[in-house]
Amino acid sequence: MKISTRGRYGLRAMIDLITHAEGEYISLRSIAERQGISSGYLEGIFAALKKAGLVLGSAGSQGGYLPALPADEITIYRILDALESSLSLTEGSEPDAPPLRAFLNKEVWDRIDSTVAGLFDSITVADLIREFENRDRAVNSSGL
Fold this sequence. Notes:
The protein is mainly alpha-helical. It has helices spanning 5-21, 28-35, 39-51, 76-83, 99-122, 125-141, and strands at residues 55-58, 64-67. A hairpin with a 5-residue loop joins strand 1 and strand 2. The longest helix has 24 residues, at 99-122. It starts with a helix and ends with a helix.
Protein backbone atom coordinates (compact mmCIF):
# COMPACT_ATOMS: atom_id res chain seq x y z
CA MET A 1 0.00 0.00 0.00
CA LYS A 2 1.18 3.44 -0.84
CA ILE A 3 -0.83 6.45 0.24
CA SER A 4 -1.04 8.81 -2.73
CA THR A 5 -0.39 12.52 -2.78
CA ARG A 6 -4.17 12.94 -2.89
CA GLY A 7 -4.53 11.07 0.42
CA ARG A 8 -1.63 12.87 2.11
CA TYR A 9 -2.81 16.30 0.93
CA GLY A 10 -6.38 15.46 1.92
CA LEU A 11 -5.33 14.65 5.47
CA ARG A 12 -3.35 17.91 5.72
CA ALA A 13 -6.25 19.88 4.27
CA MET A 14 -8.76 18.36 6.72
CA ILE A 15 -6.52 19.17 9.67
CA ASP A 16 -6.08 22.71 8.37
CA LEU A 17 -9.84 23.11 7.82
CA ILE A 18 -10.73 21.88 11.30
CA THR A 19 -8.01 23.99 12.91
CA HIS A 20 -9.14 27.20 11.20
CA ALA A 21 -12.91 26.79 10.68
CA GLU A 22 -14.23 27.75 14.14
CA GLY A 23 -17.78 27.81 12.78
CA GLU A 24 -16.95 29.84 9.67
CA TYR A 25 -16.58 28.60 6.11
CA ILE A 26 -12.94 28.40 5.01
CA SER A 27 -11.96 29.00 1.39
CA LEU A 28 -9.89 26.49 -0.52
CA ARG A 29 -7.59 29.36 -1.46
CA SER A 30 -6.70 29.99 2.20
CA ILE A 31 -6.06 26.28 2.82
CA ALA A 32 -4.00 26.12 -0.38
CA GLU A 33 -1.86 29.08 0.68
CA ARG A 34 -1.21 27.74 4.19
CA GLN A 35 -0.45 24.22 2.99
CA GLY A 36 1.35 24.94 -0.27
CA ILE A 37 -1.16 22.94 -2.32
CA SER A 38 -2.79 24.17 -5.51
CA SER A 39 -6.42 25.29 -5.19
CA GLY A 40 -7.32 23.30 -8.28
CA TYR A 41 -5.97 20.10 -6.74
CA LEU A 42 -7.85 20.80 -3.51
CA GLU A 43 -11.12 21.18 -5.45
CA GLY A 44 -11.03 17.50 -6.41
CA ILE A 45 -10.06 16.46 -2.91
CA PHE A 46 -12.86 18.45 -1.31
CA ALA A 47 -15.41 17.17 -3.81
CA ALA A 48 -14.57 13.62 -2.66
CA LEU A 49 -14.59 14.63 1.03
CA LYS A 50 -17.99 16.28 0.55
CA LYS A 51 -19.37 13.19 -1.19
CA ALA A 52 -18.12 11.10 1.77
CA GLY A 53 -19.96 13.37 4.21
CA LEU A 54 -16.82 14.74 5.84
CA VAL A 55 -17.21 18.38 4.81
CA LEU A 56 -20.02 20.81 4.02
CA GLY A 57 -19.62 23.23 1.13
CA SER A 58 -21.07 26.65 0.42
CA ALA A 59 -20.77 28.51 -2.87
CA GLY A 60 -20.34 32.24 -3.31
CA SER A 61 -17.93 34.95 -2.25
CA GLN A 62 -18.25 34.06 1.44
CA GLY A 63 -18.36 30.35 0.68
CA GLY A 64 -15.94 27.59 1.37
CA TYR A 65 -15.98 24.50 3.52
CA LEU A 66 -16.77 23.44 7.06
CA PRO A 67 -16.16 20.09 8.72
CA ALA A 68 -19.38 18.06 8.68
CA LEU A 69 -18.44 16.24 11.89
CA PRO A 70 -16.50 17.01 15.06
CA ALA A 71 -12.75 16.37 14.83
CA ASP A 72 -13.00 13.46 17.26
CA GLU A 73 -15.37 11.66 14.85
CA ILE A 74 -13.20 12.02 11.75
CA THR A 75 -10.58 9.30 11.52
CA ILE A 76 -7.62 8.95 9.22
CA TYR A 77 -9.39 5.91 7.78
CA ARG A 78 -12.49 7.89 6.81
CA ILE A 79 -10.39 10.52 5.05
CA LEU A 80 -8.17 8.05 3.20
CA ASP A 81 -11.12 5.82 2.33
CA ALA A 82 -12.77 8.83 0.64
CA LEU A 83 -9.63 9.71 -1.33
CA GLU A 84 -7.80 6.48 -2.14
CA SER A 85 -8.89 3.83 -4.61
CA SER A 86 -7.78 1.12 -2.19
CA LEU A 87 -6.21 0.82 1.24
CA SER A 88 -5.18 -2.79 0.64
CA LEU A 89 -1.68 -4.18 0.19
CA THR A 90 -2.86 -6.63 -2.43
CA GLU A 91 -5.40 -6.61 -5.22
CA GLY A 92 -7.96 -8.60 -3.26
CA SER A 93 -9.26 -12.10 -2.95
CA GLU A 94 -9.07 -14.56 -5.78
CA PRO A 95 -11.95 -17.05 -5.65
CA ASP A 96 -10.07 -19.70 -7.63
CA ALA A 97 -6.61 -19.08 -6.15
CA PRO A 98 -4.34 -22.08 -5.61
CA PRO A 99 -4.39 -23.26 -1.97
CA LEU A 100 -1.09 -21.67 -0.90
CA ARG A 101 -1.99 -18.31 -2.44
CA ALA A 102 -5.45 -18.39 -0.83
CA PHE A 103 -3.86 -19.26 2.52
CA LEU A 104 -1.34 -16.40 2.29
CA ASN A 105 -4.06 -13.97 1.21
CA LYS A 106 -6.13 -14.82 4.26
CA GLU A 107 -3.44 -15.35 6.89
CA VAL A 108 -0.96 -12.67 5.87
CA TRP A 109 -2.24 -9.98 3.51
CA ASP A 110 -5.80 -9.76 4.83
CA ARG A 111 -4.53 -9.67 8.44
CA ILE A 112 -2.09 -6.88 7.62
CA ASP A 113 -4.83 -4.94 5.79
CA SER A 114 -7.12 -5.35 8.79
CA THR A 115 -4.43 -4.21 11.23
CA VAL A 116 -3.57 -1.15 9.15
CA ALA A 117 -7.26 -0.25 8.71
CA GLY A 118 -7.76 -0.62 12.47
CA LEU A 119 -4.82 1.68 13.17
CA PHE A 120 -6.10 4.28 10.69
CA ASP A 121 -9.57 4.03 12.23
CA SER A 122 -8.20 4.49 15.76
CA ILE A 123 -6.58 7.86 15.07
CA THR A 124 -8.83 10.89 14.82
CA VAL A 125 -8.10 14.32 13.46
CA ALA A 126 -8.58 15.59 17.03
CA ASP A 127 -5.79 13.22 18.17
CA LEU A 128 -3.46 14.53 15.46
CA ILE A 129 -4.21 18.17 16.23
CA ARG A 130 -3.58 17.62 19.96
CA GLU A 131 -0.31 15.80 19.30
CA PHE A 132 0.87 18.44 16.84
CA GLU A 133 0.05 21.27 19.25
CA ASN A 134 1.82 19.46 22.12
CA ARG A 135 4.95 18.91 20.02
CA ASP A 136 4.84 22.46 18.70
CA ARG A 137 4.65 23.82 22.27
CA ALA A 138 7.50 21.57 23.40
CA VAL A 139 9.73 22.68 20.52
CA ASN A 140 8.91 26.36 21.00
CA SER A 141 9.43 26.24 24.77
CA SER A 142 12.82 24.55 24.44
CA GLY A 143 14.23 27.63 22.75
CA LEU A 144 15.17 25.84 19.53
